[in-house]
Write a structure and sequence with these properties.
This protein is of the alpha/beta class. It has helices at about 15-20, 45-55, 110-120, 145-150, 175-180, 195-205, 220-230, 250-265, 275-285, and strands spanning about 25-30, 35-40, 70-80, 85-95, 100-105, 125-135, 140, 155-160, 240, 270-275, 285-290.
């Protein structure tokens, strides 16, 4: 309607379907450089992606068949409440298996965030149980444990939260220090190994103004690469991931999907929370839907 009224409108977004549906022309920028302007009617997702990335992009999302599947995490009837005493999780039952990606679907605020935080020891569980099964048939109860206790117990659990800078990373610290946060509690000191994080960043093609620049100066996609890379470097048995492709470009999104599939192939139990139903359907081996905190 605004266009019909004669307004000039500029839309900046990573969501190419929105570009194709709304725009008349598309201008592409890559690493601060102007690449081209094309008529939307002559463009498609593939052509725009290749101009954005500067190379041919495979937009297919792999979903390898799960192997050696067995229960890793069993959640039985957990209930959680927020600070206002409103129930956020209502009698949730869930089993997560090794070597699979379990997708969690639902509109924002349906309890997805609280579910992952409850598993990670960041959310108080009012009732119910969260049991982690090891490879030898033993199990450990996680409900009632906080994140520090889970770490000290040697439980191999990694968490990529929705809030990247704040909960996931320290905005004023540089990339290397943020990647080394996990090693600060291992008793060997914070300056044990600065080469490992840099090598991991190079492998994931993290772009930063400077190695010493605060991560808050990096783009959303590069911030997410740092966070995801740090967590999978812990070789987890359980990987919790919340909205990893939100606000990132299509190439970074597919890098993340590939990393999640690599973890799946290694036998990791992956819980993936996303808002793109197409991606959830392509990436996940099983899907669970949350609505108002209920399954």
């Amino acid at each position: 309607n605004m266009r019909d009224d004669g307004c000039s409108i500029i839309i900046i977004t990573h969501k190419l379907q929105e570009v194709l549906a709304l725009s008349d022309r598309v201008a592409i920028l890559r690493k601060g450089q102007y690449i081209d302007t094309v008529e939307t009617a002559q463009a498609n997702v593939q052509s725009l992606s290749e101009m954005m990335v500067g190379a041919k992009v495979d937009l297919n999302i792999e979903r390898p068949k799960p192997e050696n599947v067995k229960p890793r995490l069993i959640i039985d009837g957990i209930n959680c409440k927020d600070k206002e005493n409103v129930k956020t999780l209502d009698d949730v039952d869930l089993t997560v298996n090794t070597g699979e990606i379990l997708g969690i679907a639902g509109i924002s605020g349906s309890g997805q965030k609280e579910l992952l935080e409850a598993i990670a020891g960041l959310q108080n569980v009012e009732s119910g149980s969260i049991r982690l099964l090891d490879d030898n048939g033993g199990e450990m109860e996680l409900s009632g444990m906080d994140s520090i206790s889970i770490n000290e117990a040697g439980i191999s659990l990694a968490f990529v939260p929705e809030d990247r800078i704040g909960m996931g990373l320290v905005g004023d610290m540089d990339m290397t220090d943020n990647m080394m946060i996990r090693s600060y509690r291992n008793g060997k000191g914070p300056f044990l190994d600065r080469k490992g994080p840099r090598a991991l960043a190079e492998k994931m093609e993290v772009m930063t103004p400077s190695i010493s620049a605060p991560v808050r100066q990096m783009s959303g996609g590069n911030v997410q690469k740092v966070l995801v890379g740090r967590e999978i470097a812990q070789h987890p048995k359980v990987l919790l991931v919340a909205f990893p492709s939100r606000g990132v470009d299509i190439n970074t999104s597919h890098v993340i999907y590939q990393l999640l599939n690599e973890q799946k192939k290694k036998g990791v139990a992956v819980i993936y929370i996303g808002e793109d139903l197409d991606v959830l359907l392509e990436l996940s081996d099983r899907l669970m839907v949350l609505c108002h905190g209920k399954v």
